[in-house]
Write a structure and sequence with these properties.
Elements lengths: L1 H23 L19 H12 L2 H8 L3 E7 L7 E5 L5 E2 L5 H13 L7 H12 L3 H11 L1 H9 L6 E2 L4 E2 L1 E2 L19 E3 L1 H12 L6 H11 L7 H9 L4 E9 L2 E9 L4 E9 L3 H23 L2
Antiparallel strand pairs: 1-2, 1-10, 3-7, 4-5, 6-7, 8-9, 9-10
Length: 305
């Protein structure tokens, strides 16, 4: 009898504890603490391991030295000790469709402020823009918002996703179409650009519910999950982490290749971003996943000692 009672209590505890842990792991994560700028989360050990791993590959090392490869990683395995590292992470690079996440952010800001009506048509365009990287949907959203609105949100004091003082960041200055005026970024005159640090900051703030609001962050996560395109980072993640939730936006144009993911699963909680100028950039990004995971795991094991 006592054994039966004990087993029952033990099962209740396990189920309750399991549900509690599961609830704590839902995105966005609720936190009352102020969101620390990602640069201040740079971890020396993680940085050293990242540099050493990339330098082990002569091709990657050369690309980094020539500022044609930029990487950013964020370890989210311990929300109370988020750690960041990057290479060439303050170098603005052409990023093709990846900066469409800036359009998504500006749209959610406009919806929350009542500047844009949240219609089924808008939601469909946002999903097409992110999941399938549809250029027509992206252009319609740019036309609805305007470049100035997108810039205003990116520069805003809450998010600070573009700032000349720290190398720039996310930028959208051209429709994803042949016609229309250009609105180039002030630093390099690029139309669709990013730095890996600021893209990491976008996902980091998204995970913490800091993009516009917790409610808007949740809507953005819903739009960004389960990408329809399965190349670059996602091609590898489909194989090694099929059960993990993946929130993602990538881009490619000519020799410019970029990808960004927020991975949230039982054994994986991290952000990876890569910007590469190389004709084999798509394959390089596929090949980066395992070495970057190795860096994150090794750093975590060192931190736990």
């Amino acid at each position: 009898m006592k054994l039966t009672v004990f087993r029952t209590l033990f099962l209740v505890f396990c189920v309750t504890f399991g549900l509690s842990v599961s609830a704590q792991q839902e995105l966005p994560i609720e936190t009352s603490d102020p969101v620390i700028p990602i640069k201040k989360l740079q971890d020396p050990e993680l940085q050293n391991l990242l540099e050493a791993e990339i330098c082990n590959n002569s091709k990657w090392s050369k690309l980094v030295a020539n500022k044609k490869m930029s990487i950013g990683i964020v370890d989210l395995s311990d929300i109370d000790n988020i750690r960041y590292a990057g290479l060439n992470d303050d170098v603005m690079m052409y990023a093709a469709s990846l900066p469409k996440i800036a359009i998504l952010l500006a749209a959610m800001d406009a919806i929350e402020k009542g500047e844009l009506e949240n219609t089924p048509e808008i939601q469909n365009d946002l999903r097409l823009m992110i999941s399938k990287s549809n250029n027509q949907a992206s252009t319609r959203m740019i036309d609805r918002l305007g470049y100035e609105k997108i810039e205003e949100v990116l520069r805003g004091p809450k998010h600070r996703l573009y700032d000349e003082k720290v190398g720039g960041g996310l930028w959208v200055g051209k429709r994803y179409a042949a016609g229309g005026r250009r609105y180039p970024d002030p630093l390099k005159g690029l139309s669709h650009a990013a730095t890996t640090r600021q893209v990491c900051s976008f996902y980091y703030q998204l995970a913490l519910g800091n993009l516009v609001s917790a409610e808007s962050s949740a809507q953005m996560l819903e739009i960004m999950k389960d990408p329809a395109l399965h190349h670059k980072f996602v091609n590898t993640l489909d194989r090694i982490a099929p059960k993990a939730k993946v929130f993602r936006k990538s881009g490619s144009w000519k020799s410019y290749h970029s990808d960004s993911v927020l991975v949230w699963g039982p054994k994986r909680k991290y952000i990876m971003v890569a910007l590469i100028e190389d004709s084999y950039g798509e394959q390089i990004i596929r090949n980066l996943v395992l070495p970057l995971e190795k860096v994150l795991k090794k750093s975590k094991s060192i931190a736990m000692r």
